Amino acid sequence: MVYIEEIASRVGQEVTVRGWIYNKRSSGKLQFLMVRDGTGTLQVVVFQKNVSAPLFQAVDRLTQESSVVVTGRVRADERAPGGYEMDASDVQILQVAEPYPITPKDHGVPFLMEHRHLWLRSSRQRAILRIRHEIIKACRDFYDSRGFTLVDTPIFTPAACEGTTTLFETRYFDDTAYLTQSGQLYNEATAAAFGKSYCFGPTFRAEKSKTRRHLMEFWMVEPEVSYAELDDIMALAEEFISEIVQKVVVGRRTELATIERDVGRLENVRPPFPRLSYDEAIRLLQEKGLPIQWGDDFGGDEETQLSQQFDRPVMVHRYPSKLKAFYMQPDPQRPEVALCVDVLAPEGYGEIIGGGERIHGHDLLLNRIQEHKLPAEAFRWYLDLRKYGSVPHSGFGMGIERVVAWICGLEHVRETIAFPRMLYRIYP
RNA sequence: UCCUCAGUAGCUCAAUUGGCAGAGCAUCCGGCUGUUAACCGGAGGGUUGUAGGUUCGAGUCCUACCUGAGGAGCCA
């Protein structure tokens, strides 16, 4: 029993491969089965003279995605896709598949999304999800090797973390609970316990956003570092993104080739990243002729314009406080701006990281909670963190799906996760 | 919530000025001893998203609704 990925080392041997029929071609007394097993694709040649007549008939009736166990001798052959093929001596048929909806021809997005559970079998979707896996592994390795402790935060939460955003509401026995939109507040508690911590899990936003960058359920990795200030966290973000990209470029070259990603553009992604203050960004956009004023937030056009000025991610820091969450530390030099940073991915992929320094003074934080009309009782524990050995601390969150979309060069984040939850689509 | 666009065979799409509902792929049957999204011949497959309206006649024009896609706002 072997996997197709190791077939090159089995030339001359008789082996058995288990998989599914990806495609089939025949020429009279000769049939070519393209067998896929998840690790690769292998051309299996069935000669009429090498198998029994009933078996040859049965093989002739195999449909796309039928499950088979094939046994035969492995041979190198230039005519075979991939350079190797198997001369079948036996084909065991587990199931003849019903007519498969996804044919080797073109399909539209709505149809493919309706069959997402089957679409995952295509080589393109498998390549993307393998890259996603590599990215997630790189995130874990990055923090694990730097002394961070993974401390996951709850999915059921008692109240809004940031008030402004729409939350998914759910019953929690006799109470109301909300699905988390960020682990950050809890991370601040764990960072005070561990010094450096991170969480990695799903987050939920009930916003009626219907664009190529939005999912209702997405995964976020969020590091939090005690005693870190804005510059520290910007350096961390820069190193973090660079390492992820380089690990994919080195470790997933085959998959990047499958999806025809321009790897050259990824190889540029190394420190230092350009740093731009919000003030400088506004000036740059105004020079480009965009009608934006100091105090406005960036929309899609602005983010695209900014990111297209650079060949690597750009870090925009010190936004006006009123554009940012209540917990952002004001800049002591200019209290109207916050010590925060957004990282915009190149090629128009938009914001992939948002973060900054958190307010560590108790009274200022209490004022902000009141100004934002947040339920103070729900934040009692959060204020406690400012009573018992409060220190400056910073962190950020990175949206995995947007990073996957950027690294893979995809049109839409829906292909970056196996089963995307989108506005008006929760099937399959 | 708002704006734009699109719904015709299982899928991808045609159908001229409003005048017979079509093709390729998939499926089924037949042919081919090296196929490369194989090819060749044949067959089955339709409430043209739904409901109204205009007209001698509507896939085509009008109205409403449904579904989907792209975008805005908001966000990672």
What does this structure look like?
- An eight-stranded mixed β-sheet has the order 6-10-11-18-17-16-13-12, with helices on both faces. It has a five-stranded mixed beta barrel with strand order 1-2-3-5-4. A three-stranded antiparallel β-sheet has the order 7-9-8, with no helix packed on it.
- It folds into two domains: 4-95, OB fold (Dihydrolipoamide Acetyltransferase, E2P); 116-416, Bira Bifunctional Protein, Domain 2 (BirA Bifunctional Protein, domain 2).
- The longest helix has 22 residues, at 123-144.
- It has 13 helices and 18 strands.
- The chain has helices at 53-60, 109-114, 116-119, 123-144, 184-194, 230-251, 253-258, 263-267, 278-287, 300-307, 362-371, 380-384, 400-408, and strands at residues 14-26, 30-36, 41-47, 67-76, 84-95, 149-150, 156-157, 169-172, 175-179, 196-204, 217-226, 275-277, 314-317, 330-331, 334-338, 340-345, 350-357, 393-399.
- Helix 4 (123-144) crosses helix 13 (400-408).
- It is of the alpha+beta class.
- The protein is elongated.
Helix and strand layout, with pairings?
Layout: E1 14-26, E2 30-36, E3 41-47, H1 53-60, E4 67-76, E5 84-95, H2 109-114, H3 116-119, H4 123-144, E6 149-150, E7 156-157, E8 169-172, E9 175-179, H5 184-194, E10 196-204, E11 217-226, H6 230-251, H7 253-258, H8 263-267, E12 275-277, H9 278-287, H10 300-307, E13 314-317, E14 330-331, E15 334-338, E16 340-345, E17 350-357, H11 362-371, H12 380-384, E18 393-399, H13 400-408
Parallel strand pairs: 3-5, 6-10, 12-13
Antiparallel strand pairs: 1-2, 1-4, 2-3, 4-5, 7-9, 8-9, 10-11, 11-18, 13-16, 14-15, 16-17, 17-18
Helix pairs in contact: 4-6, 4-13
The structure holds one RNA strand of 76 nucleotides.
